[in-house]
Amino acid sequence: MSSIDRLAAQDAARTYTQNTDVARAGGAAQHAAKAHHQAKQVKSADSVTLSDGAKSLAAAREAVKAAPDVRDDKVSEIKQKVSDGTYSVSAKVLARKMLDSQA
Fold first, then answer.
1. Is residue 79 a contact partner of residue 86, using CB atoms and an 8 Å limit?
2. In this predicted model, what pLDDT tens digit does every residue of 57-101 receive, in sequence order?
3. Burial class (CB in 10 A: 0-12, 13-18, 19+), 97
4. Which has the closest alpha carbon to 87: 98, 97, 78, 95?
5. What is the pLDDT of residue 42?
6. For residues 64 and 55, is the Cβ–Cβ distance under 8 A?
7. What is the Cα 33 distance to its own chain's centre?
8. What is the pTM for the complete model shown?
9. Exposed e or buried b for every residue in 16-41, given b needs 16+ CB within 10 A?
10. Up-side HSE of residue 25: CA atoms within 13 Å toward CB?
11. Cα torsion 71, 76, 78, 82: sign
12. DSSP conformational letter for 49
């Protein structure tokens, strides 16, 4: 009975070894094919196409970047009114702004 067990163990070991060798050979072939495929992909040039919405958004973003941060005409108008003593602010508006700034 022990010789049968020994033969079965040897067959199992042989089968395992053969399957491992086949898997290694197949894995190497797959790796080579994958490397070849990646090399092909590297040769092709990438390209990007923007939609009309993206193009208009980019144009709007550039326009905002080009606009000045301070409206000089508005600032000079308010400065003139303050220096003349004609600048006035509604008490309600002033109170609301003060309360809002506390929050």
1. no
2. 999 999 998 888 888 899 999 999 999 999 998 999 999 999 998
3. exposed
4. 78
5. 56
6. no
7. 30
8. 0.32
9. eeeeeeeeeeeeeeeeeeeeeeeeee
10. 6
11. positive
12. -
Number of residues assigned to the chain: 103
Q: Where are the alpha helices (DSSP H) in the chain?
A: 2-43, 52-66, 72-84, 91-102
- Percentage with pLDDT > 70 across the chain: 60
* 66 within 8 A of 72, measured Cβ to Cβ: no
Q: Residues 87, 91, 97, 99: is their CA dihedral positive or negative? A: positive
- Top-ranked range on mean pLDDT: pick from 36-40, 53-57, 68-72: 53-57
Rounded CA-CA distance 80/86 in Å is 9
Alpha-carbon Rg for the chain, nearest whole angstrom, is 39
Using CA atoms, how far apart are residues 103 and 93, in angstroms rounded to an integer? 16
The tokens of 15 are what?
Answer: 């089968």
Torsion of CA 41, 46, 51, 55, to 10 degrees: 160
